[in-house]
């Protein structure tokens, strides 16, 4: 089930002894995505931004009913500052995990069929995602998500928003916060989106879809 994937997403970063979340490691070397996403970007994006979200999340849950709760449940049951930090922690792990230094550039299997049927092909889907990412004002995320029946949709969320709270299953996420691309591309968001596609591994996205 896709839900199972969502729930498993952050199990690895909790420790049973402290109920605290730990910074999830990158699944590749910190310089492995160069020249598309630089080591310096990942040092800030993973080592500073994600680390700060996880640290703040841990501070906020201590002594509350959220302590010991799976991260996905915290995201779906919280609001305000706790929601912002919990959702950003969940989404950034999901984000970093979708990249590979040697990415598969095309979807396969059931996901390819669904994309062809719903969008007319991978290039059309990417154009639609790019348009959403360029049009999103300010900070946020653009997602490809699936419902319980496997139907695909493109979702834009502001700030820390996530389709998890709508009962949808995220498949991929484009980080439209300036911190995702400013070091490498300054204000040129389109350049950041181009780099995103250069390292996005469609094999990982296809597997996420297969687990429904
Ligand atoms: Mn980010």
Our estimate of the beta-strand percent is 5-15%
Q: Number of helical segments? A: 9
Principal-axis shape:
globular
Overall residue-averaged pLDDT value: 93
N- to C-terminal distance: 4 Å
Looking at the overall shape, the CATH architecture of the domain at 109-211 is 3-Layer(bab) Sandwich
Strand order of the largest sheet: 2-1-3
- What's the main sheet like? 3 strands, antiparallel
Low-confidence segments, given as residue ranges, are none
CATH homologous superfamily of the domain at 109-211, by name? Iron/manganese superoxide dismutase, C-terminal domain
Radius of gyration: 16 Å
Query: Share of helix among residues?
Result: 40-55%
CATH topology of the domain at 109-211: minor pseudopilin epsh fold
H-E string: HHHHHHEEEHHH
Secondary structural class: mainly alpha
CATH class of the domain at 109-211: Alpha Beta
Number of strands: 3
User: Which ligands are bound?
Assistant: manganese (II) ion
Ordered list of secondary-structure elements with their pairings:
Blueprint: H1 2-8, H2 39-61, H3 71-77, H4 80-96, H5 109-119, H6 122-135, E1 140-146, E2 152-158, E3 169-175, H7 182-185, H8 189-199, H9 202-210
Antiparallel strand pairs: 1-2, 1-3
Helix pairs in contact: 2-4, 3-4, 5-9
Question: Concise description?
Answer:
With 212 residues, the protein is mostly helical. The chain contains nine helices and three strands.
Structural account:
The structure is a single chain. The protein is mainly alpha-helical. It has a domain at 109-211: Iron/manganese superoxide dismutase, C-terminal domain (minor pseudopilin epsh fold), CATH 3.55.40. It has helices at 2-8, 39-61, 71-77, 80-96, 109-119, 122-135, 182-185, 189-199, 202-210, and strands at 140-146, 152-158, 169-175. It has a three-stranded antiparallel β-sheet with strand order 2-1-3. The radius of gyration is 16 Å and the shape is globular. 33% of the residues are buried. The mean pLDDT is 93.
């Amino acid at each position: 089930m896709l839900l199972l994937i969502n729930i498993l997403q952050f199990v690895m970063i909790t420790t049973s002894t402290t109920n605290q979340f730990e910074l999830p490691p990158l699944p590749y070397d910190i310089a492995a995505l160069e020249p598309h996403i630089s080591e310096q970007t990942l040092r800030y994006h993973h080592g500073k931004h994600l680390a700060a979200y996880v640290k703040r999340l841990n501070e906020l849950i201590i002594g509350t009913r959220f302590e010991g709760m799976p991260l996905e449940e915290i995201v779906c049951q919280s609001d305000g500052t706790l929601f912002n930090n919990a959702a950003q922690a969940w989404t950034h792990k999901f984000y970093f995990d979708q990249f590979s230094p040697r990415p598969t550039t095309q979807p396969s299997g059931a996901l390819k069929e669904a994309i062809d049927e719903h969008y007319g092909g991978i290039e059309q889907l990417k154009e639609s995602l790019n348009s959403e990412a360029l049009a999103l004002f300010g900070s946020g995320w653009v997602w490809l998500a699936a419902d319980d029946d496997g139907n695909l949709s493109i979702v834009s969320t502001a700030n820390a928003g996530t389709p998890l709270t709508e009962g949808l299953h995220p498949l991929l996420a484009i980080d439209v916060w300036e911190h995702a691309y400013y070091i490498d591309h300054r204000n040129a968001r389109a350049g950041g989106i181009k780099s995103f596609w250069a390292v996005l591994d469609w094999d990982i996205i296809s597997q996420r879809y297969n687990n429904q």
